[in-house]
Amino acid sequence: MIKVSVIGAKGRMGGNVVNAVNQADDTELALALDAGDDLTQVNPDNTDVAVEFTVPSVALDNVLALIGQGVDVVVGTTGWTDEKLDQVRKALAEAPRKDQAVFIAPNFAISAVLADYFAGLAAKYFESAEVVELHHPNKVDAPSGTAIHTAHTIADARRAAGLGPMPDATETDGGSRGQVVDGVHVHAVRLRGLNAHEEVLLGNAGEQLTIRADSFDRGSFMPGVLLAVRNVSAHPGLTIGLDKFLDL
User: Fold this and answer.
1) pTM, entire model
2) Residue limits of the Dihydrodipicolinate reductase C-terminal domain (predicted)?
3) The domain spanning residue 227 has which CATH number?
4) Does residue 135 have an active-site annotation?
5) 241 among annotated binding-site residues
6) Is the same domain home to 147 and 65?
């Protein structure tokens, strides 16, 4: 049995993770902690993997503390920058356990992971590409970590294919063209009634390909969370993206 502690257990996602861990045949809940709880309770004696689902403002400190406690970590909180990721890498390099592992997922939904992967396959064939992400209005970051990751995936594929900048004659837009991530425009929608959705739009003269992933409830993320819990310890260091654990 894999002993799992959940950080952010009273949150919307954390509560679903607690239920998923309790229902799976190969995992058991060790600790369920939330804001204000002492993370030093989490240690290798009671925990194999800690799952961190909180908010971007505290996620880095939580992950660094868990690395210091010597447990492997699966992170679902978004809002990661290159600077924050470098701090995680540095902490792992200095950790007493040289095989310690941290996994960060821009998205745990299998559909979203595949959409990102398919976007990378298709991007080199199209002159233009844009990303639209749509979420509920309680989401605190924009654009989403998933959309940022997809933009980088598209940009990497375009660079590898030797493609230049995408056509865009817009001169002044007042921000309506969205945030530019690695040369790709990313648009964020926050609307009551939505959960988590992403569209990748790819276009050539006379044709368009749309790749869309929809997660209608938080239960859609749980198979991916459990997949990460089962695989994180076999991948020392920092791993980003659930695609690393899928047979793609």
Assistant:
1) 0.83
2) 114-246
3) 3.40.50.720
4) yes
5) no
6) no
Phi-psi region of 95 (alpha: psi -120 to 50; beta: other; left: phi over 0): beta
The verdict on whether residue 86 carries a ligand-binding annotation is no
13 annotated binding-site participant: yes
Q: With the CA atoms of 180, 217, 246 and 88 taken in that order, what torsion angle do they form, in degrees rounded to the nearest 10?
A: 60
Q: Are residues 119 and 81 in the same domain?
A: no
Number of domains in the chain: 2
Tell me the backbone φ, ψ of residue 101, rounded to 5 degrees.
-135, 140
Surface-to-core class of residue 54, CB atoms within 10 Å of its CB (0-12 exposed, 13-18 middle, 19+ buried): buried
Q: Are residues 92 and 156 in the same domain?
A: no
Domain holding 100, by residue range, is 2-104+219-245
- The answer to whether 12 is a known ligand-binding residue is yes
Per annotation, catalytic residue among 3, 135, 185, 187: 135
Query: Has 139 been annotated as catalytic?
Result: yes
Residues 167 and 94 in one domain: no
Is there a binding annotation on residue 247? no
CATH, residue 169: 3.30.360.10
End-to-end CA distance of the chain: 27
Q: Which of 84, 90, 98, 139 is catalytic?
A: 139
pLDDT in tens, the chain (248 residues): 999 999 999 998 999 999 999 999 999 999 999 988 999 999 999 999 999 999 999 999 999 999 999 999 999 998 888 899 999 999 999 998 889 999 999 889 999 999 999 999 999 999 999 999 999 999 988 999 889 999 999 999 999 999 999 999 998 778 899 999 999 999 999 999 999 999 999 999 999 999 999 999 988 999 999 999 999 999 999 999 999 999 88
